[in-house]
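Bench log. Compound arrived from synthesis this morning; before running ITC I wanted a structural hypothesis for how 3-methyl-2-oxobutanoic acid sits in the protein. Inputs:
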Amino acid sequence: MYGAGDPRSPNGNPATGPRAKVTVPAIRARKGERPLTVVTAYDYTMARLLDEGGVDALLVGDSLGMVVQGHQNTLPVTVEEIAYHGRAVARGAGGAHVIGDMPFMSYQVSPMQAVETAGKLMKEGAFESVKLEGGAAFAEHVFRIVSAGIPVMGHVGLTPQSVHALGGFKVQGKKPEDAEQVLRDARALEEAGAYAVVLEAIPPDLAAEVTSALSIPTIGIGAGAGCDGQVLVCYDLLGMYRGLAPKFVKRFAEVGSTIVEGTQAFVQAVGDRSFPGPEHAFKPNGFPTEERPVH
Ligand code: KIV
């Protein structure tokens, strides 16, 4: 077996050195303890950087339909696309747990379809668990997937795959009867065997109530500080996404501006011929081969 930190090992991000793999039992054990950190990732390089930053889990979210592909919502994303991005993220993940989102209409048809899709994602996407949207109506789906040995993260409150039914990306659980439904949904997912549940865009007091009612961790996004962990889209938290950011997003860096400035500097340097300089050129023929690889 390769040791942790070995680039050939599954948790071998060489930049971070040895780091224990964050497993499903380890995530469960964080209930009420140190808050969990989950960030979306869609490619190898970003996965490596986020892993180096110490996140507990990387989610290959169907948000890729919006932030990577430029669609208005997540509905067009396919199982094959999630699996493709999953393989890239898994190669860079190091110790972070890797979760694959089940896209729209890849599990809603029946519990059987849900098991087949979850299995396909685990086999072809190199994921360690899957996530699906929906509450009590999908408890049977979750139960069947978990029975097949695949860990499931639930997702209630604002479920973006239902954007048209909800009339937009709107806060959920504001009315007392809606709040009760969110609580019922989260409980149903726990009973079905989910190991954690995302609470999206619900009032903080409701999220805190759900968190204390469940024995599995809650991961909030736009749900206040009372959850067992937080998840954000990587381009949002790093300040890269140029679209309209939801109110709950905090930009922890301005990477987007850094990219624009770096690009402007490149354009300028090529224009005035200050790049490439002699230090970026190979020696003429006849000199010993460069030791540094081209890549
Ligand atoms: O698709 C996604 O990125 C998500 C998270 C924002 C929770 O579901």
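What the model suggests: The longest helix spans residues 176-192. DSSP finds eleven helices and eight strands in the chain.
ITC booked for Thursday regardless.
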